[in-house]
Amino acid sequence: MSDILQRILETKKHEVALAKSQIPFLEIEKQALDSIFDEHLKPRGFYQAIEDKITQGYAGVIAEIKQASPSKGILRSPFHPAEIALSYATHGAACLSVLTDVEYFKGCTQFLIEARGACSLPVIRKDFMIDPYQIFEARAMGADAILLIVAALSDAQLNEFEDIALKLGMDVLVEVHDGAELKRALKLNSPLLGINNRNLKTFEVSIQNTTCLLDQIPKSKRVVTESGILQQSDVDFLRQHHVHAFLVGEAFMRAPSPGKALEQLFY
Question: Distance between CA 200 and CA 154 in Å, rounded?
Fold first, then answer.
């Protein structure tokens, strides 16, 4: 595990402890269960939205909403999640990804609530999940999917967290960085398999990281390539290798109109 990931996970323990002190576990669990039947909050079908786009012949784009990153600092200012979400929805995104990590990505749960409320797209809570509490919290705020980072979790945690998410009606994006993590991820039930093109040790990015792992992945999994998709040639290269689902954020966050930037890159 990289030093930066280790540092983030240590901070996350404190964030989760604070959240638990503000809303007890039993209360957040009740909110999560109630949300499944709430007309405005019920799950929207994150995985299905991606598949629908791909079936139509388009790329399944998970468009990210994030204010900052640990390596690049502030990416967008002023930052209006609802406006960005609507822009993405108008220009062809399949789903949204919203950063809720406070310390390192300058995110918050309110950003997800605002983004989801602005359009009809399903939303993944992009955060570092280390505790079941966060999964119930994600559903209570309206998240339609969660991210599980294999590098950050044990096999037992991966199984437990996936099980909770699926029982709450959410989808799960399981993220890997290399072959060893991939072997662990393939034991899970989720069809969504994210391959992060960023090296966790050096933070260098190469989209070849996705293509190098493809021959080890069964057809039952939907590969989502993450990080480093910056230009048309990147998209063409990956789609030629039958990778049709993309998670893109930074390239859009720096554009005057994130949605138009998405449309230019993928349509």
Answer: 17
Round to whole Å and give the CA distance between 154 and 184. 9
Give the separation between CA 143 and CA 122, rounded to whole angstroms.
8
Choosing from 35, 51, 53, 66, the catalytic residue is 66
Per-residue model confidence (pLDDT) at position 204 = 83
Q: Is 42 a catalytic residue?
A: no
- Tell me, what's the pLDDT at 162? 98
Catalytic residue among 126, 162, 197, 250: 126
Active-site residue, 197 included:
no
Give this prediction's pTM: 0.96
Told to judge if 53 belongs to the known catalytic residues of this protein, a careful annotator would answer no
- Asked if 189 is an active-site residue, the reply is no
Residue tagged active-site, from 15, 29, 51, 64: 64
Verify whether residue 103 is a known catalytic residue. Answer: no
* Catalytic residue (one of 29, 197, 227, 250): 227
Catalytic site residue 227? yes
Cα(150)–Cα(19) distance, rounded to whole angstroms?
23
Q: Cβ distance 69 to 252 under 8 Å? A: no
* Beta-ladder partners of 126: 99
Tens of pLDDT, residue by residue over 138-192, are: 999 999 999 999 999 999 999 999 999 999 999 999 999 999 999 999 999 999 9
Query: Residue 203: left (phi > 0), alpha (psi -120 to 50), or beta?
Result: left
66 is catalytic: yes
Neighbours of 3 (CB within 10 A): 9
Phi, psi of 44 (to 5 degrees): -100, -10
